[in-house]
């Protein structure tokens, strides 16, 4: 059985993934027509390329339908409960950098840190009768982060896009979102809290614990040797 | 009927023999009440669903809230209730998402020490056949210690709010003692805020967006500047509180220790809370519990049981790292919140029969 490797199906993430593998002697290419999601791998035997949306790769890894997958570390942590029980992290690939941060209005001159946000949340609840709203699509990551830091009296509201606009629209008081340059935040009169980001994401090569490794293990060993990454301990299939 | 069902039925019958009236609760509960009480964390732990007419609903994560609500709608006093049924919690790994809880709740205005002892002694008796390790604690002592700190009301209420979040509590205490990274960040913020008048700072910072108004920002700036003038919490008080938090000893020895040792810094404020602990230990002795050997841990219940505000207890498997088989405590403040002005002192606890089954 061949080793199924899931990679992002379009855009810069796909190009940079192809380039990363190419630098290590593994050539990947889309095959067929431009709109056809099929691909081929050269340089290692027994590897099958599966082109997928980056956001679907965590789920496919968890289900074991692909053996390896390239996607953002933020998506794996957000999508998968107890992610370390479901995937192995093989390599951080050094591109696709983005930070998940918490931002508040620039006019909040009394807020620099989470410590301040927590105090403001208590006062806000007393003043307005409901909990301070943080708009995000990264519910698991943000909730775990705020719980770990003991922040109380907030609520998460779901925002799947244009998150920075929720504050102006009075549907949230703060946002938690991905940023690489911070320009959109500044344009919306927001500033980032000074604490360490919720998560520093980058493109990462993962291996699925649930995949059927019998038959695929030799291909993985060959690929791992070519890429210069370690084969995870505990991988069965021998 | 599974063995856990049979155990639940037996426990429920014994609770009825002890004088409790069996009550039922809906599995579908309005999410808003629970979210308001427990905060965002409950969303990570409970199953939330949506009803087209009723809005967000939750699969009951525990019985306490609906039982208190039912009592508030016109229960006689004093009242003893018992119940058995499934509760639903999100879990990771192989732990049960749906499991039985059997519970006992006592609402009584008189003699809280005796009520605490009644519930604990009942649980101790019901659980006696199993190899369990009891633990007790008292959130009331922690609250009294915070109230006794020589510092402003604002600082005390910030600490009170975070009694259940040990990491933030420690960080706040450190900042209020004038030490650590938070104190440095705060000093920098205050120095920036002193540079100009609040209105000028806000106007200069950027366009005003969102619901939080300039007045609210101005009010917090005033609070911050005022707080910066207050002296740090005295070092010996911080240390006394930290020692208190790490106290673990048999209950009688713990009481003696808290009365005798070098906690003079907190002692006057602690005295009434220690009197309540002593009264409880007397009542426990009278109910046949050996308080000379009963474990007491001052921080027990801080991370898992947010609504308990006095006596807390748990029964843990003597071996391994299994979750507690039973937990309980006093939750007077919760009844005040749910009763919208009315309140009734309450103490109770729950047992998980499936975990008992695993021990047999």
Characterization of this structure:
Chain A is an alpha/beta fold and 238 residues long. Chain A folds into two domains: 3-96 and 203-227, Periplasmic binding protein-like II (D-Maltodextrin-Binding Protein, domain 2, 3-Layer(aba) Sandwich); 98-200, 3-Layer(aba) Sandwich (D-Maltodextrin-Binding Protein, domain 2), CATH 3.40.190.10. Chain A contains seven helices and 13 strands. In chain A, the strands form three sheets. In chain A, strands 7, 8, 9, 10, 11 and 12 form a six-stranded mixed sheet that branches. In chain A, strands 4-1-5-13-6 form a five-stranded mixed sheet. A two-stranded antiparallel ribbon of chain A has the order 2-3. In chain A, strand 2 (27-31) and strand 3 (38-42) form a beta hairpin. Chain A is elongated, with a radius of gyration of 21 Å. The two termini of chain A are 13 Å apart. The model of chain A has no long low-confidence stretch (mean pLDDT 91). Chain B has 360 residues and is of the alpha+beta class. Chain B folds into two domains: 3-145 and 243-359, BirA Bifunctional Protein, domain 2; 152-237, no CATH class. In chain B, 49% of the residues lie in helices and 18% in strands. Chain B contains 16 helices and twelve strands. Chain B has helices spanning 3-17, 31-38, 41-45, 64-72, 112-127, 139-147, 153-161, 166-176, 180-193, 198-205, 214-229, 235-245, 251-260, 267-286, 332-338, 353-359, and strands at 21-22, 28-30, 48-51, 55-59, 79-88, 98-107, 132-138, 248-250, 295-297, 311-317, 326-330, 346-351. In chain B, a hairpin with an 8-residue loop joins strand 10 (311-317) and strand 11 (326-330). The interface between A and B is large, with 46 and 45 residues.
Strand arrangement, largest sheet of chain B?
1-5-6-12-11-10-7
CATH names the topology of the largest domain in chain A as D-Maltodextrin-Binding Protein, domain 2
Domain count of chain B, please report it.
Answer: 2
Total beta-strand segments of chain A: 13
**Would you list the SSEs of chain A in sequence order as H and E?**
EHEEEHEHEEHEHEEHEEEH
Considering the protein shown, what is the CATH homologous superfamily of the largest domain in chain B? Bira Bifunctional Protein, Domain 2
What is the highest CATH level, the class of the largest domain in chain A? Answer: Alpha Beta
Task: Return the CATH topology of the largest domain in chain B.
Answer: BirA Bifunctional Protein, domain 2
CATH superfamily of the largest domain in chain A: Periplasmic binding protein-like II
Q: How many domains would you count in the coordinates of chain A?
A: 2
How many strand units of chain B?
A: 12
| Whole-number mean pLDDT of chain A | 91
pLDDT < 50 stretches of chain A: none
Oligomer: heterodimer
Chain pair forming the biggest interface: A-B, 46 and 45 residues
